[in-house]
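Lab notebook, page 48
Experiment: co-folding of the full assembly
Goal: obtain a model of how the components sit together before planning crosslinking
Operator: M.T.
Materials (sequences as entered):
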Amino acid sequence: MGGTGAIQIPTGSILALGAILFCIGLYGALTKRNLIMVLVSIELMLNAANVNLVAFSRLGVSPNLNGQIFSLFTITVAAAEIAVGLALLLAVFRVRKTTEVRDLDLHRR
Amino acid sequence: MPDLIHAHYFVTMGPLLIVTATAFIVMVLEFCLPRVDARVWLGLSILGTLAAVVTAAVHAGQRALTLNSVVQDAFSAVFSLVILGTTLLILWFALDFARREPQAPKEHPYLILFAVAGALTMASAVDLVTLYVGLELLSVASYVLVGVRRQSARSTEGAVKYLLMGSIGSAVLLYGMSFIYGLTGSTNLYDLGQQGMMLWTNYPAVTVLAFLLMLCGMGFKLSLVPFHAWTPDTYAGAPGPVSALLATLSKTAGFALLLRMLLFIFNGAPQVYVWAGVISAATMVVGNLAALPQRHMKRMLAFSSVAQAGYLLVPFALFGASGYQDWIALFDSLVFYLVAYTFMTVGAFAVIWWVSRQTRSFDASVLDGLARRNPWLAGALTVFLLGLAGMPLTAGFVGKLYLLIDTVHLHEVWLGVLLFLTSAVSFYYYFGWIRRMFQPAVSDAELAGTVLAADAGVFTFGLQFDNPPITPHPGDEHWQDDVEGVRVSAAPDETGASDQQVGDGSAGTDARPGIVLQTLIAVCVIGTLVLGVAPAVLLHGLWAVGWYQ
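Observation: model returned without errors.
Model output:
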C-alpha cells in the first residue's frame, strides 16, 4: 500500500475519490437542467478518469509514466471538446434564447 | 528505395497523412479564397481521398509497425479501405448538396476530412492513447459538422444533444481504459494482449467492470440501446450528407475500434462477451420497434440504423465462444455487413434528401406516388429498403445470412432467432414506404387515417418511448433542415415551424436529380445488388487478405 514518498496514501482511497467524482459527474450530466452545468459534470467524469490514470501511474501494478502521458492527452482533448460544447451552447442561445436542457425539444414537437 | 528509415511511416500512416494534409490545404485555401465555390474544395477533397485510397490499396499487403502505436496489418488495411470508400460516397453526396444548396456551409469539406483522419486512426492504432485521440478527433469533427449551420435551431439542437451524449460516452470509455491501464501498467494493445489471461484470473470483477464501461462508452458513440436517445434528433437536425456520414463512416470506425480493443484486451476472458450479446439483443429489439411509428423519414432511418448497429454487434457476442480459427468467419461477416450497410444507407439518405428537398417535407407521406413521378428514384429507394430489410438478391440478405450462420455455428442460436424475428418486424416499416411509393394516388387525409390507425393497432402495448407520429399537416414542414440560409427569429419560444426560408424559388423546379446524385445512387444500387447476387466479389477479397498474416 502507498507510494514511495514521505506521505503514504492508500491506493484504495484515491480510486474511491475517482469513483465518487465519476458518480457525481454522471449524476449531474443526467439530471442537471442547465447546459453549462451538464458540461461541468462531463468535465468531472473526465477528471475522474484522469485521477485514476495518475494514481495508477504511481501506485499501479507496474508503475510507469504512461498514465500521466495519457492524462495529458485527455486534458487536451477534453479542452477541445468543451470549447466546441461552449460554442454550440452559444449558438443555441443565440437562436433559442435559452440554455435549459428541457427547452431543447424542437424535434419532439 | 529512397528513404528506408522513414519508409514504414508511409506504409502505416500513408492514407492518414494524405487525408490530413488535404484537410489542411483545403482549410487554408478556403480561408484565403472565400469567393471560390464550395464545389472546388469538395473536388480537391475527393482527389485527396482518391490518392489516399491508392496508397492504402498499394500498401494493403505489407505489414509494419510504427512507433509502437500505429500498425499496418490486415485489419487496418481492410477497415481503412472501407472507411475511404465511404468517404468518397459521402463527399460525392456533399458535392451535389453544395450544388443544390448554394448557401451550404463551406466548412463541410475539411471537417469531413478531419473526421476521416480520426476514423483512419481508429482503424490502425494499437495504443489506447492513440485510439482515444482518434475517436475524439472523429467525434469533435462530427459535433461541428452537425451544428455548423448556426442559424438553424434544429441543427444546433441536434449537435448539442450529440455532443453531450458523445462526451459522456468518451468519459465512460476513458474510465474503463484507466482500469485496464491500472491492472496491467500498459496502454499498448500488444502488451495487453499478452496479459489477457492474467487479467481475468487475477481480477475478474474489475475486468468485467472495465469491459462494461468500455462497451457502454462506445455504445454512446455507436448509438446502441440504451444509449441511442440522441440518434433521431441528431440525424434529423444534420444536413443530408452529414447524416449519412454519422450513420455509416463513424459506425464503421467505431466498430473497428471496439473490435480491436476488445479482442486484444479481453482475449483471455471469454465470459465477458455475453454482455455484448445482451446489448446487441436490446438494440435489435428496441431499434426496430421504435422505428415502427415514425413518420419523419430521417428519424425512421435513424432508428433503422440503431437496429442495424444491433445486427452488427452480433459477431461481438460470439468472439468469446469461439477459437481463433472461427474469428476469421466473424471478421468476414462483420466487414461484409458493414460494406452492405454503407451502400444501402448512403443511398437511402441520398434519395430521401432529394425527395424531401423537392417536396419540402420530411413526412413519409411525400413518398406517395413517387413511382409515378420518378420511377428510377422509387426503384432505387426500393432496392435500398429491401436491402435494409434483408430481402434475398440484395446485400442485406447475404450479410444477415452470414450473421445467422455464425450464431448457429457458434451455439448462440438465441441471438440468431432474435435477428430473424426483429428483421421480420422491420419489414413492416420498410414495406410501408414501398407501398406508399407504388400505390395509386390517395387523398392525404384518408391515407393518414389508415396509417395512424395501423400504428395505434400495433402500438397498444406501450412502446411509445419516442415522439408520437407527426401529424400530417403540410403546414409544419421540416424541409428547412437541409436548407442553409434559414433564419430563425430570436423569440424565446419560437419553433422551427416559424423558420422563414430565404433564397428559395429554385427549389422544386428541377424535377430530376443531377448527374452527380444519379451517379451516387447508381453506385449504391449496383453495390447493393452485386453484393447480393455475387457476394464472392467481396468475400474473395477478404479471403485474400489473410487476417492473421
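Interpretation: The CA atoms of residues 54 and 68 of chain A lie 5 Å apart.
Next step: discuss with group before ordering constructs.
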